[in-house]
Amino acid sequence: MHHARTLSDADRAWMRDHLKHLMERYAGLPPARPACVIHGDAWVGNVVSTADDHIVLLDLERCSIGPPEWDLVSTAVKAFTLGGISVEEYTDFVRAYGYDVTTWDGFETLRDIREFRMTCMAAQVAAENPARHDEVVLRLASIRGSRGPRPWTDWRPVP
């Protein structure tokens, strides 16, 4: 946040304050499923299938022990924050996995943290590529609640 040079001081202050509240909410999460090995950045872009039908997980630098809800919330965000998959596709995912993270009392906290991380990443990219500034502004307005309800289907990838 400190290096998000394309953002105003007020935006950076809001982000610092929002981070503080997210940390407080995280500290008060309700009980979750037992900790296990989690990917840390689970989404379809980090899974590939080889020509001989092996499944390979990519980008394991965030792999750790933690609540499986952290990985599961990524798919829910794809469905309900970004509209990147349909409700039917999300339902199929839940059916195959056997658990719907959106029914867990801590879901909104993890969702909000994911959305904040996505916004911070956009701010980081915009610091090096100011042409991406509008995406940060859009995401900030979204997570601040000034753009209406989810899904925010106009969020764009920031390479």
What does this structure look like?
- With 159 residues, the protein is mainly alpha-helical.
- It is 48% helix and 8% strand.
- The strands form 2 sheets. The chain has a two-stranded antiparallel ribbon with strand order 1-4. A two-stranded antiparallel ribbon has the order 2-3.
- It starts with 8 loop residues before the first helix and ends in a 15-residue tail after the last helix.
Summarize the structure.
48% of the residues lie in helices and 8% in strands. It contains five helices and four strands, in the order αββββαααα.
List the helices and strands and how they pair.
Elements: H1 9-27, E1 36-38, E2 47-49, E3 55-57, E4 64-66, H2 68-80, H3 87-97, H4 107-128, H5 133-144
Antiparallel strand pairs: 1-4, 2-3
Strand order of the largest sheet: 1-4
Amino-to-carboxy terminus distance: 18 Å
Count of helices? Answer: 5
Number of DSSP E strands: 4
Order of H and E elements: HEEEEHHHH
Main sheet properties: 2 strands, antiparallel
* Helix percentage range: 40-55%
Q: Give unreliable regions as ranges.
A: none
SS-based structural class?
mainly alpha
Query: For the CA atoms, what is the radius of gyration?
Result: 16 Å
What share of residues are in beta strands?
5-15%
Principal-axes geometry comes out as: globular
The average pLDDT score comes to 92
Main features:
single chain, 159 residues, mainly alpha, two-stranded antiparallel sheet, two-stranded antiparallel ribbon, 4 strands
